[in-house]
Amino acid sequence: MNNYLKKLIEINKNTYYLLLLLLILINLLFFNDIIYAENNKWDIKGQLINGTTNSYVEDHLIILHVSSDGELEEYSTKSDNLGYFHFKSLNYADDSVIGVSSIFEGVLYGKDLGLISNQNDEILLTVFKASDNSENITLENSTVMFTSVDKSKNLIWVMELIKVVNNSKTTFKPPSDNPMGMIRFGLPANYEDLIIDSDLLGVEFIVIDKGFAVLGNVYPGEHQILFTYGIKYDEQEYIYIRNLQFDLNNLRIITENNLNIELPDFSYDQNETFVNEIKYNLIEMNNFKQGEKIKIIFSDLPQATIFDKSKNYIQNFDRGWGMFILFFISLIISLPILLGKKRRIKS
User: Does pTM top 0.85 for this prediction?
Assistant: First the structure.
C-alpha cells in the first residue's frame, strides 16, 4: 500500500511539472508581445544640418513617424542650439518602422529609417535653402525608347527615362505666381495614355499645353522621371519633335528593328543593343543645349486596315449616342408602317 501511494505521488508530481511547463509555454506564446513592449524603450537621436551653409539648424521642429501594428503615430520635438534632437523612451516592438521629417523654408525633407531596432547611430537630417532659380537644373541623360507599334490603332508606344540633376546646394522650389517657372517636359501634340512615375519626394505632375510639368521641389542631387505614352499617327511618315527646356548631356534613342527613323539635323551612328534579350537599334548623341530642337522622322509606318478601323470604331462607339441613333432609326422605320395602318382603317 505504501509503495502504491509513493507511485501515485510521483505520478502527480510529474503531472504537476508537465502542467507548469505547459503554462509557461502558453504564457510565452500569447503574452510575448505585451512583455516585449513593456521591457523595450527606444531612444532616437540625431542632428539637423543646413546643407547650403554647412551649419546646424537650431530651434526647429522635427517629426518622428512610427508605424507599428498597422497604425501610424507621430511625435514632435525641437532641435537644440547645436541642431541636435532626441526622442526618448519610445515604447514599441522591435519590428516597428520609423522615419523623420522636417519642413524648412516651405520645403518638406524626410528620411526613412527602417526598423526601430536597427537605429544604433545618430540620424543626420539635411535640409537646404530654397530658390526658384532653375539655372542649376540639367538633364544628365534621356533615354527615349519606341517600344512597339500598334498598327491596328496607328499608335507608336514610347517609354522615356530622364535623369534630372540639381547641381547646386539649394532646393529648387518653383515660383507660385509663375506656372512657366515649373520644370516642364514637352510631348507630341497628339499623345495619349500618359503615365508618369518618379523618385522625387512629394511631387505631383500636371498636364500642361504640349506636355506636363513637375508640381513640386527638386532637391540637390540626381532624380529620375519615367513616363510612357502613345503617339497617334495618320500617314506612313510621322515627325517627332522635342524642344529642350534644359541642357541635356546624353541622349539615347532605342527603336525596334522594323522601325525606320532619321534625325536629319545631326550626325550619328546606329548600333545594336539588347533589352531583356531582345535586339533593338540604338542611336546615342551628346551635349545638347537648352532650347535646342530634336527632330525624328519616322517613315514606312504600318497602316491600319479597313477591318482594324471598323473594329476600333465599334469599340470606341459611345453607348449613349448609339442608343439614341438606334431609337431614331427605329422611329423612322416604324413611322411609315403606322401611317399606312391609319390609311387602311380610314378606307
Answer: no
